[in-house]
Structures are given as C-alpha cells and as structure tokens.
Amino acid sequence: MTTTASGSAGSKVAYQSTVKHGETLVNVEGLKMYFPVNAGLFVQKKVADVRAVDNLSFHVLKGETLGLVGESGCGKSTTGRALIQLYRPTDGSVNFGGTELTKLKGNDLRRFRRRMQMIFQDPYSSLNPRMSVQQIIGEPLAIHGLYKGNERKERIEYILQAVGLNPAFARRYPHEFSGGQRQRIGIGRALAVEPEFIVCDEPVSALDVSIQAQVINLLEDLQEQFGLTYLFIAHDLAVVRHISDRVAVMYLGKMMELADRNELYQNPLHPYTKALLSAVPITDPELERTRERIILTGDVPSPLRPPPGCVFNTRCPIAVDECRERVPEWREIVPTHWVACHRV
Amino acid sequence: MARLLEVNNLKTYFFTEEGVVRAVNGVTWHLDEGETLALVGESGSGKSVTAMSILRLIPNPPGRIVEGTITFEGKDLLKMNDAELRSIRGNRIAMVFQEPMTSLNPVLTIGQQLREAIQLHLGLSTDDATTRAVELLELVGIPEADQRVKDYPHQFSGGMRQRVMIAMALSCNPRLLIADEPTTALDVTIQAQVLEIMARLATDLNTAVLIITHNLGVVARYADRVNVMYAGEIVESGSAVDVFKRPRMPYTVGLMASVPRLDATEHVRLTTIEGQPPLLVQEIHGCPFRPRCDWAIDKCATDHPELEEKEPGHWARCHRNPQVDEKTRVPASEAAAAAN
Lengths: 344, 340
Ligand SMILES: Nc1ncnc2c1ncn2[C@@H]1O[C@H](COP(=O)(O)OP(=O)(O)OP(=O)(O)O)[C@@H](O)[C@H]1O
Ligand SMILES: Nc1ncnc2c1ncn2[C@@H]1O[C@H](COP(=O)(O)OP(=O)(O)OP(=O)(O)O)[C@@H](O)[C@H]1O
Ligand SMILES: [Mg+2]
Ligand SMILES: [Mg+2]
Description:
Chain A has two domains: about 1-20 and about 255-344, no CATH class; about 25-35 and about 45-245, P-loop containing nucleotide triphosphate hydrolases (Rossmann fold, 3-Layer(aba) Sandwich), CATH 3.40.50. Helix content of chain A is about 30%, strand content about 25%. Chain A contains eleven helices and twelve strands. The longest helix of chain A has 18 residues, at about 210-225. Chain A starts with about 25 loop residues before the first strand and ends in a 5-residue tail after the last strand. Chain B is of the alpha/beta class. Helix content of chain B is about 35%, strand content about 25%. Chain B has an eight-stranded mixed sheet, sandwiched between helices. A four-stranded antiparallel sheet of chain B has the order 2-1-4-5, covered by helices on one side. In chain B, helix 4 (about 110-120) packs across helix 5 (about 125-140) and helix 7 (about 160-170) runs parallel beside helix 8 (about 190-205). Chains A and B meet through helix 6, helix 7, helix 8, helix 9 and helix 10 of A and helix 8, helix 9, helix 10 and helix 11 of B. Bound molecules: adenosine-5'-triphosphate (2 copies) and magnesium ion (2 copies). One adenosine-5'-triphosphate binds near residues 21, 23, 45, 48 and 63 of chain B. One magnesium ion binds near residues 76, 77 and 201 of chain A.
C-alpha cells in the first residue's frame, strides 16, 4: 500500500478504500431531535429547545461500522438513540431495511426493536446489580419471547461463550466481574436477541487501554461472525479510525463531514475535522513533536443558543461573513465524501 | 540541570481489612528542574498514590508511607512538620487534579479564589492580587478576564475551570507542578488548549512537571522522560523516545501495542494483555507481570527482577531481553517467527 501522508485539502492521497459496496441498512433523512426546556414556577412553559440533533442525513451500509465522533454534548448519543427509536425523533425519517421506523407504534415497533440493540458506555451503571448474568442476558429473550425453557439456557451459554465469558459464571452478579468482563456482559445482552444493527455508545471509553483492546477485538470478531452492522460512537479518534469503515464528524447537533475512514483522516476537508485531528497527539514521540497543530480558541457554544449560520463559525479559523449568515449545505463534494462548509 | 526532586525507595501501604495493600512498593526516581516526567501504567498500579505521597496527602489510616525518602530542593519532605509542609504545598509544589469542579469552591467567585491563593503565597495587597488574578486568567486564555473574575465556578465550562486550576497552581511560580490526569475529563480540542497552556507556562517559568496520564499521545508530545508503573513498582524508565520506540519490558511492549494509532492506514489487529494485574495484598514472588507475560521463563517465577540499565538512560525490570521492531512494535523474535 502506498501512502503519501498529507493533511491539506485537495491533495491527492492514495489509499485503499474502506467503503463496503453493499445495500443500505439504515437511511436517515433530515433527522431532528429537539428537547424542550421548560420554565415557570406554577405553570411549566416551554421557553426554548435544545437542538440536540438538527437535520442529519446519512446512511449506514449493511455490514459496515460507521464511526461517529465529536465533542461532548454534540449529539452523538441522541443520534444513536433516535436511530433505534429509543427517542422518537422530532422530525425526519429513519428507514430501516425498507421500513419507516418513525411511523411505527406498539407491537410493530417492538418487533423491530429486537433487530436494533445498544451497548452502553458505563459497564458499571448499565447492568442491574441485583440480576445474575443469566438473568441479564435472558431478560431481552423473555421480552421478545425468544428461546423457551432449555433452549433459552443453551442460548445464554452460547452467548456467554461468544463474548468470551465462561458459561460457569452464569449465576454470578455484575460486581463479581472486572470492568472489561462487565462490558462483555453488556455486549452479550445486546447480542442475545440476534440483532442486525447495534449502536455502540462509547463501549470502551471507561476501560483501561489493555482491556479496551480486548473489547475492540471482540466487537470485530462478532461483527464478522454474525454479519453485524455497527454505529460506533466514541470520542477517541484513534479507536474510531481503527474500527470504522466510514467516519462521521458532528459538532453542536450538526454533521460536519462524513467520509471513508482513510479519506477522512488523511484528507479532511472541514476545518473542524482538521482541528480535531490535529488536536489528538499521536503515540510516536518523534513524529508528534514536529507535527503541526491547529489549536482552536474558545469553547463550544451552548446548544440552547447555537450561533447563526454555520454552528462552527465562532471557533473557525477561516470563517468569513457568509459563515455567520447562512447555514452551509450538506453536500457530497466527491463521491462518498460529504461535508458542510462554505469554504471547501 | 539541577536535581529538584529525588524519590528513594518509597513504600506507601494501605492497612485494610483484606490485608496490606502495597500500593507503592519501593520506587526510586528523580526529576530535574524544568523537566517533564510522565507516570503511566495500568489502573491501580500506584501512580496517584505516588503523587499523593509527595504531597503527603495519604489518608492515615488506612494509608502510611512506611519507608523511603522524598528529597525536594535538598530537604526530606517526609521529615517536615506541618508548618514547613504548608509553606511548600501549593507554593513550591503545586497540583492540578482530574475533576476541576470538586477542587474549586462553588460559593466563591473565581476571582476571590485566585486572589486568596495569590495573597496566601505572595503576600500581595488585595488590589495587586486582583490585578494579578486577571492577568493569570488572561494568561490561560479566558476572554474578558476582568469581567469573568466575578463569575462563580458553575458559570465556567469544564475546560475553563481546568484552566483556572492551572492558573491557580502556577500563580506562585512553583518549582514543581504535579498534574494527575489533568485533562481526562475534557474534550479533545479543549484538552489540547489546556495542555498547550500548561506546557508553555511550565517552559516560561522553568517549572518541573510530573504528569500522570493514560493518554500515551500526551506523553509522546510533552514528556521528556517516562516511568512505567506496574503493581506498585517502576518496571521501565527512560526518554519518551526510548520507551515508546524500543520498550524493553513486556508490559510496556503490550501497552504500546494495545493502543490503536491515529496515523494507521492499515487495519492491524490490536494486541491485548490477557489476565489481570496481581492483587497487591498478596506477597508477590518473582516478577509481578509473570502470569500475563508471553516471555516468562522459570526464573521469572522465583527471582524478582531488578531495574537494570538496558541502554544508556533506559532502564527496565525484566530477566528476558525483549526487543521490538521500531515500526511494527512487534517483538523482534515474534516478527522473525512470523516471517518463517
Ligand atoms: N433527555 C434529554 N433532555 C434534554 N436535553 C438532552 C437530553 N438528552 C440530551 N440532551 C442534550 O442534548 C445535547 C446532546 O446530548 P448527547 O448526549 O447526545 O451528546 P453526546 O454527543 O452523546 O455527548 P457525550 O460525548 O458527552 O456523551 C446536549 O446538550 C444534552 O444536554
Ligand atoms: N484509601 C485507600 N485504601 C485502600 N487502598 C487504596 C487506597 N487508595 C488507593 N489504594 C490502592 O492503592 C493502589 C494504587 O492506587 P492508585 O490510585 O495509585 O492507582 P493509579 O495508578 O493512580 O490508578 P488509576 O490509573 O486508576 O488512577 C490500588 O490498588 C488502590 O486500590
Ligand atoms: Mg454520549
Ligand atoms: Mg490515579
């Protein structure tokens, strides 16, 4: 493989494409998720909206891992939850394998829930401390009426084995496990109902680096074994590069850029993506000390009062008047490379 | 460069119901003026306890420094009385911790807290201290500092609060700054802002820095030297380049190979370190890393390895002599085996 390392826009970079040419599993159009902010002593009145997710359009291909990065509060978790209908979107469409999820209700929605699962960040608080491992993994099976009696027991054993836990531990409780083992239990719970799509919300952020590597390898193995599709949310850009086929970058509820993994990391077009990548120190002392960095000034604005125009304009090193006035269009600038910036 | 701090055979134990936790078990290291030293290693390996020992902030009971000396500017910190300690803590030695909200008083304004620290250590008048507080906030990049000094901590974002902590820590020109996970709670771009400010001020004031972090990229960028800790001991020590490029202790080898690289264009499966670190309440015979080590031989089960100088200035605690390929970070013998 040939690589000419360069970060500048428009440079020719040779690399292998990581885009999988498959069918679309999830298609998202104009997704909005607003949370009302209420105030008032006696009568609660809506005074504003937190625009947690504001007009996202993208798709997830069957069998791929789409990475989702961005700073705290930019709307990553909300996006993941709105996709699998844990939040009902304020507006927009989420199409899952041909079915419009935002219109589903009751039993129809419950049937779909089985096909879309979630893995959470904190392996401590996301597991019920009073439930044994077999109860934790058996619960979603019971909810969806899958595998009865002895078959369920076998299924639980099979899942424990798949996530690298000894089935002999089935009767133990979460506190008897290490952080990495607990995260395996959470993955097992998501996997039990044979989902096609899993939203992994910061699944390794709370883990020590050596355990983080075990969980990442496990997620990769399971994806291959069961043909899973992942939306992988994380703030560690190196982890996201490692695991993703394509990567999306969010800022203040909006998508800034989306591209094939290597394209995004070697040829970022959006000034926010560039700043984000350059802010992450790499683990090579010789390269790191000579690397040029873009240090952004200022803080992320409140999502209650997003700036007019492009939401990044208050911290953008190349913003012009247009950026403060008009919201940039989300466009495919070259095939499979999407960006929202007036200056590209 | 003059020697600023010397830690010699430090042992800090916790006497708990389950037994004696040997959290720091005989560490020896030093720091020169103006130097930045990083402490890295697995969770629970004794990094924070090392830092707390220097400041003599170990809760007693259950904890106690049972052996060793900590010499700072020629004087043993462990022999000082409380008054002497107070004149050093927050003055000659300053600290920044992970959670800036808990380190700031919520009912006092940012300006009041900065002023208090400045007056306590520099003995300035209230007006001069106020001027100095505004200057410090400007120094750490807080816009409209003369207005923002009137704000309370909750009106500042996490990154701003951490910058205030750094301003406060550096307000009295300390000779040593101890930063325990100073940016772990912060976002990537804010983390970069805060670390750049910290590094710049340390350079300007010739302050030595002890930084504790899990972020190996941060170590690669800022540290002159690195100490790797495992189970209460230093298992490897050397310049950042030596330790990152040519780790000589299998735990460090595993640590480096288990972190995905931001500049990796090809997908390589991550290396993992299977198993768990030893329980520190048990007496450990031989090498503490042996149960997880691919290189272990019989001797590792019986003989505790000494910290040996493997190349000039690069020390490692290992009976074997693992050497890794600088590019792939795969142990050289494994690479050779894979090639066959
Ligand atoms: N249930 C809710 N009610 C009101 N506001 C919410 C709710 N959930 C999220 N928000 C707000 O929406 C915005 C996006 O939050 P979200 O949790 O999606 O961010 P994130 O990108 O996942 O951040 P992090 O990296 O910190 O997890 C934030 O401003 C948050 O405060
Ligand atoms: N107050 C205490 N009582 C008992 N044991 C303690 C106490 N404080 C720390 N320890 C033990 O000392 C050991 C070292 O802890 P320390 O906090 O130094 O780890 P660390 O290297 O800083 O880890 P991390 O990376 O997770 O912050 C741990 O095994 C811990 O459980
Ligand atoms: Mg989140
Ligand atoms: Mg610690």
